[in-house]
Amino acid sequence: YDTVQSLKEQISQRINVPIDKFTLKRGGKQGIELKDLTKTLQGSSFVNLSTVYVEYGQPTKLGEFRLVLSLAKRLAEPQDKELFEFEDLGEVYISNDDRPQDIVDQVIEKLAKKGYEVKPNQIRIRERHNERLGRIYRKRTMKTQGVYDKRAVSVEIVDDQETNFYDLPDKMNQIIIKIWDSQTYELSDWFEVIVDRSQSIKQMAEQIYAKNPKIKVENMLANKCVAFWTLSRVSLIDADWVKLDDESQSLGSTPFFLNNDGYLFIIRDASIPIKELTQEEAVRIGYEKRQKFTIQHSDDKYRKAQNSYKQSEKGLKIVVKKKDAQQQEDTESKPNNQTANANEMSPRTYSKIMETLEEDEDHTTGLQPLI
Q1: Where are the alpha helices (DSSP H) in 99-243?
Q2: How far is 65 from 60, CA to CA, in rounded Å?
Q3: Which of 14, 101, 128, 175 could be a cystine partner for 154, CB 3.0 to 4.6 Å?
Q4: Omega before 78 cis (within 30°)?
Q5: Of 139, 38, 152, 19, nearest to 84 (Cα)?
Q6: pTM greater than 0.85 (yes/no)
Q7: Residues 6+ apart with CB under 8 A from 221
Q8: Residue 150 — left, alpha, or beta (φ > 0 → left; ψ -120 to 50 → alpha)?
C-alpha cells in the first residue's frame, strides 16, 4: 500500500512546493494533521474519495504540536468589556513534554522581532479565550494543562518580577478587580489580586483593600462577572451583590465557585446607595432602553402565549341524526347483507356499524357546540 510519505511526494510535485513546507490533514481544514509519514493510507483510515486538505506551513513531527501565539497588551484607555488588545506573534512548536518555562526562549525571540525587550521573569503564558485571558500555565507539561494543536495562547508582560507564576499551586488564582461608583456609575481601571480558593471571601476583601483602600472591608459588596461580553454599567443596577465580610464562605464554594484564573469581580461600597437615575442619565447609559426592551420582550412572550392558548380553544359540534322510518325498514330487511360484509371489514368497523343499527330513537338532536 502507498504511504502518507508517497502521497505527500505526489502532491508536492503537483503543487510545486517542497514537502517540508506544507501539511496534510484528513477530512478538511479542521481535520487531524497526518504526522506519521511512514503509515500506509489504509492505516491512516483513507478510503476511496477521501478528502485531503493541504495547508502551507511547517509540518509538526510526531509528539509535537504548535501553539498560535499572541501578545496581550493592556488597553491604554480602560473599557468596560475589554481589558487587552492582542498582537499576533505567529506560531511556536512544542513537544508533549515541554513546560511553559521551556518555551520562554522562543517567546522572547518573537517579542524581540516586534521590538519588545523583556526578561524571562516578566512573562506569563496564558490561555486565550477570544478577547480575554484565562488560565496561567503552571510548572507542568503543557499537554497536562489542556493544550492541544493550534491552541490559542497569549503572552502577558508583567511588571511584578518577584512572583514566580509558574510555581503557583493550582489552588492559587489570579482575579481581576474593578471598582464601581454607584453614584457616578463609573468603573475604575482594573488591578489584579492573587487569591487562594480555600480562603474566605473576607480574606479576599482584605487583599483588595490592601491594593486599593477606597472601600472598607466591612462595606465591600462583590459581583462576579462570568461573561465579559455581558458586562455593562446598566446590568450592575440589578446585579446580585454579595457582602464580603463573611469568614464562613470560601472562594471555591458558593456563591462564587472560583476555579480558574482571569475572572472579573466588580466591587462597590454598601454604605453608598445606588443613585436613582434622572431621565437624561438613564438615556445616556442605556438603562431606559434596556427596561423598555425587557418589558416589550415580556409582553410579546405573554401575547404569544395568550394567542396560542386562545387558538387551542375551539368549539366542537356533535349532531346525532335519527333514522327515518323508510331507512329503518331497509336496514331491517337486509340483515344478511351486513353479516355477509362483516367478513370483508375489520372487527372495529363491524362493531361500530352494529352499534349504529341498535341506536335508540330517544337520542337528542342538534347539540350545541361544547366549550
Answers
A1: 104-113, 201-211, 233-237
A2: 6
A3: 128
A4: no
A5: 152
A6: no
A7: 241, 242, 243, 244, 267, 268, 269, 270
A8: left
Residue 287's SS3 state is helix
CA 158 – CA 136 distance, rounded (Å) = 12
Q: What cell numbers appear for 114 in the block?
A: 516586534
Asked if 258 and 173 touch (Cβ cutoff 8 Å), the reply is: yes
From first to last of the 371 residues of the chain, give the pLDDT tens digit: 588 889 899 999 999 999 888 888 887 777 878 888 888 888 888 888 888 889 888 888 888 888 999 999 999 888 888 899 999 999 898 988 999 988 998 999 999 999 999 988 889 999 999 889 999 999 899 989 988 888 999 999 988 666 677 788 889 999 999 999 999 899 999 999 999 999 999 999 999 999 999 999 999 999 999 888 778 887 888 889 999 999 999 999 989 999 999 999 999 999 999 988 888 877 777 665 445 444 344 444 444 444 444 444 455 556 665 555 555 555 555 544 444 444 455 555 655 555 655 554 444 444 444 33
Contact (Cβ atoms closer than 8 angstroms) between residue 321 and residue 365: yes
In whole angstroms, what separates CA 350 from the centre of its chain?
Answer: 60
Half-sphere exposure of 47 (CA within 13 A, CB side): 1
